[in-house]
Design a protein that fits this description.
There is one protein chain. The chain is α/β, with parallel strands linked by helices. It is 47% helix and 14% strand. The protein has one domain (5-151, 224-297): Rossmann fold, CATH 3.40.50. It has helices at residues 18-31, 48-51, 61-65, 101-112, 129-136, 149-170, 174-185, 195-203, 207-219, 232-249, 264-271, 275-278, 283-297, and strands spanning 5-10, 36-40, 77-78, 84-87, 118-122, 140-145, 223-229, 254-260.
Amino acid sequence: MKKPIIWAIGGGKGGVGKSVLSGNLGIALAKKRKQVVLIDSDLGGANLHTCLGIANPQMGLSDFLSKHIRQLKDVVVPTTFPYLSLISGARDSLNVSNPKHTQKLKILRAIRNLETEHIILDLGAGSNFNTLDFFLAADIQVIVVVPEPTSIENAYRFVKSSFYRQIRQKSPNSSIRSIVDQTIGQSDRLGFRNPHEFLAHLRTMGSEIGEFVDEQVLTFNPKLIVNQIRSSKDRRIGFAMRNACAKYFGIQLDFAGSIEYDDNVRQSIIKRQPLLEIFPQSSFASGVLEVCDNLLYGRFLESEKLS
């Protein structure tokens, strides 16, 4: 069986709707008869099961990491939706919320070996190394932002931190790792005003390193969803962020689409039922289905005229 396609739904700020979006994207894929496993990889505050209307699961990542369950496939639980299953996150364990490097590798290897077509990782908020590593392990890397200054600022920080983390992980020598560590830990220490200057500096270190940097720029290609929009101005944030990443970061950020603010989201959370199921004609449901298709088939918005 082919290896599954891994989706990671992340962002630099909590409260942008990652879990709700992850759950409904999973349902959207399942409605296309794709075998999907949703994984709540927010190891410090798992709640994806609630978004799916599932009572607190008896098994999850905690049991796999603590070796109570030997294989990850044994903590997969079915949902009420055909083709859709769930692996719940950590339960009541402060140690599991911050796994060691070996534990993290164990999870990632096990995820890759699950027998399914698609895996959706619902990531925790913030830009800590564990979250970034799960994000970088995905084939489809999605950043969710809402039209608020703090969310946009944190999304840029998440993009930059993810990119720097990728460079450090794949670095061919210790000099690059040292520069990345100094840049991440204290952004003004080396005087780089933006990632573009950081990359330009690395390219001066020799042709081989320059080729390495160029390769990282080409392979780092996250996708963006603007959630909870209320106007065309909010929607244009997606295009603005895409252009800013190209200009100041030197990387390609694809705009996968936007989803309108919808009061039905709150109702679905209160009722503990996925919105795509109980309000299938809502604007949120339409937005999720469109975004799902764009991500699945690689269709991204280039300009407002084409959107």
